[in-house]
Amino acid sequence: MRTALDTGTLKRLYARLARRYDLQHGLLTARADQRGRRRLVELLVDPGDRVLDCGAGTGSTGILAAQRVGPDGHVTLFDLSEDMLAVAREKIEAAGLQERIHTQSGDMGQLPFADNHFDVVLSTYSLCPVADPEASARELYRVTRPGGMIGIAHSTEPKNPFVRWLAHKVETIAWRLPWLSMGCRAVEVRPALEAAGGRVQLEKRFGVPLWPFLLLVIEKPQDDAPSTQACQ
Q1: Residue 228: its pLDDT value, please?
Q2: What is the pTM of this model?
Q3: N or C: which end of the chain has fewer CB within 10 A?
């Protein structure tokens, strides 16, 4: 796995990208990104749910979730970049969903939420740039209530050896242009979530063959006990 960009560089990068992120990410993924978001929301989010969209960016996933939770539910958008969240707030206002969504900035590796707090936790394309995706995935698990669900979409390696070799060559070039790569690289978080006690309900590849995504749905068992204290 390629070494992640440092936090300061990521903040500056997403400040620069915020206004064009939706367009750029959609084009680079041939719109597979939005298909992944919709699939997770349709599978996991129900009316009245309390949902965390972690690494929410410009709010595309969180807005879909807010439309689904209805007036009795609530969605928290959490992201490292205040610039990305500023774009999200504009989209939330345009959708008329201010009463169902609030935004908060911070580090995915240290979530400021209590154990077992959310019914559903979503992370779409946000684990790929972080320095320690396994630790961040464990945080997603920690804040999910027993019986709750975690839905993740992240970049993964192509299975075909030739395509994987070609993808690495393209990635090497893109990595020299952070505005193009957006700091994203293939990651693997399923083992960390299973080690924490999670049960895999769905694992499915999708997207462009050269840079595919993995859709991962994890259930936190009903009998799971809190393992860590909430971050202060």
Answers
A1: 45
A2: 0.90
A3: C
